[in-house]
Amino acid sequence: MSGKYYKEFIKGVFKENPTFVLLLGLCPTLGVTSSAINGVAMGLATLIVLIVSNVLVSMIRRFIPDKIRIPAYVMLIATLVTVVDMVMHAYVYEIYKVLGLFIPLIVVNCIILGRAEAFAAKNGVVASFFDGLGIGTGFTISLTVLGMVREILGAGKLFGINFMEILVGADKWQPALIMILPPGAFITLGFLMAGINYIKEKKHKEVK
Amino acid sequence: MDISKLFAIIIGSIFINNFILAKFLGTCPFMGVSKKISSSIGMGMAVTFVMTIASSITWIVYNYILLPFNLKYLQIIAFILIIASLVQFVEMVIQKTSPNLYKALGVFLPLITTNCAVLGVAILNIQEGYNFIETTVNGFAGAVGFSIALIILAGIRERLEYSEIPKSFQGVAIVFITAGLLAMAFMGFSGMKI
Amino acid sequence: MGRIFHYAFVLTLIAVISAGILAYADKKTAEPIENITKKLENSARKELFPDAEKFVEKEKKIISKIEYVPAYNKSGEKIGFVAKGSENGYGGAILFMVGIGMDGKITGLKIIDAKETPGLGDKIFLESWQKKWIGRDSKYEFNKKEDAFAGATISPTAVYSGIKKALKNMPVEKKEKLNIETSSITKESIDKKIAEKESYKFGNASYFDISNNNGVIGFFIKSEAKGYNGKIVFEMEVDKAGKINTLKITENSETAGKVDEKELEKWQKNWVGRDVNYKFDETNDAIAGATVTTKAVADEVKNILTKYEEIRKKRGWE
B31–A185: do the CB atoms touch at under 8 Å? Predict the structure, then answer.
C-alpha cells in the first residue's frame, strides 16, 4: 500500500519535476529565488496550497458537474490562496513582505490548477494527497536549488550566512551581482536545465 | 490629468520594469509561445486586449464594490473570476464577430487566464494606487512590453534554429539563457529618468 | 434548462462557502495584522527617538505628502517629529523615516522599503550610512564624496531630497508678527485680510479678525475715545501675543494746530510693541499741549488690551 503512494510522491520530485521537466510554475521560480531561504518559503507556501487543493478537489470531484469544474476549482484555489496570504501576513510578516506579489499569484500557478485537473479530479483523496506532496516537494527542491546557486554566486551567502566574508574576509570579494538580478534568474535556470539534460544524456548512453 | 505621470507609467512598464524581463510575470506563455514570430504576435495582441480590459474592470470592481462594502479580502477570488469570465466572453465575441481573428488568436485566449501577468498587473494597479486612467494605461503598457519581449525572443529563437547548439543546451535551456541575455539588455533601461 | 440551474446552484454554493471562509479568516487575522504593522512602525520610530515614551498618531499632520507624527518623552514634552516620506530612487519609490528634533536636526534615519540595485544603491540600507545623517539639518548640502557610493549616486541623492523636504516642511509654531511696513491700517493689505464683519464688540471697540494663509493672526480694532473736543476715532492692530503692531488716529476734532503732525506720528509709533502690561507715563507719553487727547486714547487702548487678554485666553494664544 505504501509502495503505491511512495511512487506518487517520488515521481513529483524527479520524473515529473514541475520546474525542470514539466516547465510549470515558472513565474515564482524566477521571481523569488534571489536567495535560498526565499526559494524554500515560496516552495512551502505553494506546497501547502497544492496539497490542500488536491485533497479538497479530490473530495468533491463527484459533486462537481464536468462543465463547471474549472471555475469551481479556480474559486477553491483562490480561497485557499487568500487564506494563506492572510495567515502569512499576520504571522510571518518578514517572509510575506519578501514574497510579496507572488503569494496571490499562486492562484495562477499552472501547477495547482494543472494537478487538480490532471490528477485530483480523477483519483482518490489519499493518492491526491501524495501527488500534491510529491509535486510540491519537487517544486520546493527546485526553487531551493535555484535560490542556493543564485545566492552563492550573487551575494556570497548561503541561507543568509555570509560565508565568503568568513572565508576570505570582508571587502575582499565581489559577488557576481547579476545573479541575484532578473537576468541571473533566467541564466541560472538555463544552465541548470542544460546540466540536467547532460546527466540524462549520459544515463541514456549508459543504458544503450 | 497628469500626462507626465502617464508617460512615466508607459515607459516604465514597457522598458524599465518590463513585465517578463524584470518582473517575471507571464513567463509560462513566454517560453511556450515564443517559438515562432507569428504566434508571438498573435499572443501579444490577445494579451494586450485582455490585460487592458481586465485592468479597467478589476479596478472598477475593487474601488466601487469591494472597498465600499469592506470586502477587500475577496480581492483575489473576485479578480480571478473576472479575468476568467472576461477571457471566456472575449473568446465568444471574437468567435462570433470575426472568424479570421478567431483563427489567429483563438487558441491563445484560454492560456491567458492563467497568465500571471494579467492577475499580476491587476493587483499591482491597486497596490500602486493608480486612478482609472493610470490603471488602464498601465495594463496596456505592460501588455505591450510583454509583447515586445515575446516577439524579440521569438525572432532570436527562429534564428537559433540554424545555429549549432551543444546537445545539453538544446531545447529549453538555451531559450532561458537567451532570455537572460535579453533581460540584461533591458536592464540598460533602468535609471532612465523621465 | 435544469442543467443550467444545477450548474448555477453548485457554483453559487461554492462561491458562498468561499466568501464565508474568507470573511472568517479575514476577521481572525485582522487584529494580528494590525498589530504587526503598528509594532514594526513603533519599533522603527523608537530607533529614531530612543528617549520617546509615545508617538501620538492622532496628531499626525500631512504636509507636502510627508507624514509627521510627534514624539513625546516621559515628561510629556514634545521632543520632535517622526517624518515618513517617499522619494523616487533608481528602482522605484524609497520609503524612509527620519526623526527630526525640535531644533530641526536629524536624530536618526531609517530606510523602510526600497528596490534599489543590490550591492550598489541598496547601500542606503547600511546602518553606517544612515548614521551619517544624525545631527544634520535642512541647511546641509549633499556631498558626493561623503554621501554617495561608488557607482551609485541616484539612490543616496533621492534619500537626501526626501530628507530635505521632510526637514523643510516640519510643522513649527512660528510666532506671527505683523510686518510693520505692510500693516498700514488699510483694509487691503498684501497677504492679510481683515474680516468684513466684526467678531466682537465691547464698549466702543469693534474687533475684526485678521487672517492670512495660516489662519487668524491677530485683530484689527476700531474704537473711539472721548477727547477734549469730542470723539477721537482710532484704529489699531494687535497680534496673537497681545502686542500692538500699529496704532493710528483717524478722526479727531481736537484743537487744530495744537498737535504737531510729526509728533503725533511719533507718538503713534511709540505704541508699537506695547501690550497690556504697559504703564502709561503721564510725563513721557503725553504730547505737550495735548495731554487730554493722548491720555484719552491711552486709556481706551488700555481698556481694549485688557479685554483682549480675555479673548487671547479664550483662543489659547497665551
Answer: no
Interface with B, mutate which of C22, C88, C115 (most B CBs under 10 A)? C22
Distances (CA, A) of C167 to C55, C162, C239: 18, 9, 28
Nearest CA in chain B to A33: B24
- The backbone region for C134, taken as left when phi is positive above 0, alpha when psi lies in -120 to 50, beta otherwise, is beta
* pLDDT at B184 exceeding the cut of 50: yes
Tell whether B119 is within 8 A of chain A (Cβ): yes
Classify each residue of A10-24 as buried b or exposed e, where b means 16 or more C-beta atoms within 10 Å of its C-beta. Answer: ebbbeebbbbbbbbb
| Residue B22 CB contacts under 8 Å (≥ 6 apart), including other chains | A182, B16, B183, B186, B187, B190
- pLDDT score of C91 more than 90: no
Summarised one tens digit per residue, pLDDT across range C174-218 is 444 444 343 444 444 445 677 777 778 888 888 888 887 777 888
B151, B40 in Cβ contact below 8 A?
Answer: yes
Low-confidence ranges of chain A (pLDDT < 50): 1
Q: What are phi and psi of C61, to 5 degrees?
A: -115, 140
Could you give the 3-state DSSP secondary structure of residue A65?
coil
Residue to substitute from A69, A101, A113, interface B, most B β-carbons within 10 A? A101
CB pairs under 8 A between B and C: 15
Q: Which residue has the cell 481573428?
A: B101
DSSP C149: B
pLDDT value at B70 more than 60: yes
pLDDT, residue C187, reads: 41
The reported pLDDT for the residue numbered C180 is: 38
- Using CA atoms, how far apart are residues C216 and C194, in angstroms rounded to an integer? 10
Give 3-state DSSP helix, strand, coil % of chain A, rounded to 5.
80, 0, 20
**CB < 8 Å to C18, chain A:** 75-76, 78-79
Task: State the CB neighbour count (10 A cutoff) for residue C26.
Answer: 18
* Cα(A124)–Cα(A55) distance, integer angstroms: 8
User: What DSSP assignment string belongs to C256-300?
Assistant: TTTS-HHHHHHHHHHTTT--TTPPP-TTTSSPTT-HHHHHHHHHH
Using CA atoms, how far apart are residues A109 and A32, in angstroms rounded to an integer? 14
Find the residue in A nearest to C11 (Cα): A72
Cβ-Cβ contacts under 8 Å, C22 against chain B: 73-74, 77
Closest CA relative to residue A49, chosen from A25, A83, A17, A13 = A83
What pLDDT score does B193 carry?
Answer: 58
Which residues pair with residue C152 across a beta bridge?
A: C149
Q: Which residues of C148-161 are buried (b: 16+ CB within 10 A; e: fewer)?
A: bbeebbbbbbbbbb
Which residues, 6+ apart, have CB-to-CB distance to C92 below 8 Å?
C114, C115
Window A:82-111, CB contacts with B under 8 Å? 82, 85-86, 101, 104-105, 107-110
Question: Is the CB of residue A176 less than 8 Å away from at least one CB of chain B?
Answer: no
Identify the DSSP state of B62. Answer: I
Place of cell 483563438: B106
**Residues on chain A touching C15 (C-beta within 8 angstroms):** 75
Cβ separation of C154 and B190 shorter than 8 Å?
Answer: no
Mutate which of C16, C26, C31 to disrupt the B interface (most B C-beta within 10 Å)? C26
Q: How far is B67 from chain A (nearest CA, A)?
A: 16
Coarse DSSP helix, strand, coil percentages of chain B, rounded to the nearest 5 percent: 80, 0, 20
Q: What is the mean pLDDT of residues B42-46?
A: 84
Q: Which amino acid is at A124?
A: G
